[in-house]
Amino acid sequence: MLVAASAVVAVGTVAGLVSALDHGPDGDDEARPVVSASPSLQPLPALPSPSPTPSATKPSAKPSPKRTPKPTPTAKPAKKTPHRRSSVPPAATRLYRYGDSQVLEWVRANRSDPRRPLIESRIADRPTAVWFADFTPDTITSRVRAVTSAAAAEGRVPVLVPYAIPERDCGGASDGGAPDRAAYDHWIDRFAAGLGGREVIVILEPDALSQTECLGAGQRADRYAALARAGRVMKSANPRARVYYDAGHSGWNAPATQAARLRAAGAASPASSDGVFSNVSNFQRTADEAAYDRRVLAAMGAPAGLGAVIDTSRNGNGAPTDGTWCDPDGRRIGEAPTLTTGLPRVDAYLWVKLPGESDGCKGEPGRFTPDYAYELAD
């Protein structure tokens, strides 16, 4: 199934996109994220917590062997050095739930709706990704910072999706993004400036490597270079950021094909990458994705420290056998988002696509649709 993660976009907004976005009254850089819609289109091993600096004590001097009747004087107890707190914050072990998602807005406004308890407990209470898809370089830093700061205050890990690559979606329904490479590089610099210094997961440009057929050779090379630079810039701005690159999904490109593109985009280098992501907005089963991702990583020649994260938001029943991608019937939410999967080289299960936001067939593209959400959660 060669469906792009970006599938459908509403007029004037990316479809299915949760975007932390706000403009001040004068177009200034006001730091309040606002929800828009998500493109129609899971353990991160928590970094080890630095061990507290132990209280340093010198060992008490042992008595000398009794070679003479004269006892050896007892050594004075050594002075203890003050306990120091590590300057590195402890690693977070839980994912961040963005407080202004469309599903949470619906839950707050519909307390008496009979569908509300199920939707709230199985979808709204789960952490999901925050998308940044509008090309607004003047405000991107504060919008990213608003999310990362809120997550840091709760000791949780946010999942961010930068989605502004030039020629996005090959001019399809989710087209848009930066007008050119220079503008994109500048936008990435501004994005990275908001990452802060705590753990953060970055899902870098869904579909950007899976869907390149519309690009000429020069455009592909430019895209690969832009993505490699983006990873380096983000990891330089925040060494605790974990950046994952687009591996498509197990029903799309062959592992060798995807691996070649990933290598070209710097995804095999720890200087820019922590591995790959797959199944964004799709329905492939987790076991299939894990096997596929490991094949991709092997074909990339990726170091052992690089892993994969899988979008499990709608894959509970797997993909439809007929290839339907637009709000197919009979789908279910998959494994809950977690930083602990127990699978080798699978760092996390994430909900990158927000369950209940329509692809455009059961509701307005990118908008939360209660009946669809209820169907996925039931």
Poorly predicted regions: 6-19, 21-36, 40-88
Q: Report the biggest beta sheet as strand number plus sense, adding barrel if it closes.
A: 7 strands, parallel
Helical amount among residues, as a percent range? Answer: 25-40%
* Structural class by sheet pairing and helices: alpha/beta
Query: Number of DSSP strands?
Result: 7
Write out the strand line-up for the largest beta sheet, numbering strands in chain order: 1-2-3-4-5-6-7
Strand content: 5-15%
**SSE ordering:** HHEHEHEHEHEHEEH
Backbone shape: globular
Integer average pLDDT: 83
**Total helical segments:** 8
- First-last Cα distance: 26 Å
Radius of gyration from the alpha-carbon trace, in angstroms: 24 Å
Quickly describe the structure.
This protein is an alpha/beta fold.
Task: Label this structure with key terms.
globular, 8 helices, seven-stranded parallel sheet, alpha/beta, 378 residues, 7 strands
Word description of this protein:
The protein has 378 residues and is α/β, with parallel strands linked by helices. It is built from eight helices and seven strands, in the order ααβαβαβαβαβαββα. Strands 1-2-3-4-5-6-7 form a seven-stranded parallel sheet, covered by helices on one side. Helix 7 links the parallel strand 5 and strand 6. Helix 2 packs across helix 8, helix 4 runs parallel beside helix 5 and helix 6 crosses helix 7. The longest helix is centred in the middle third of the chain and has 21 residues.
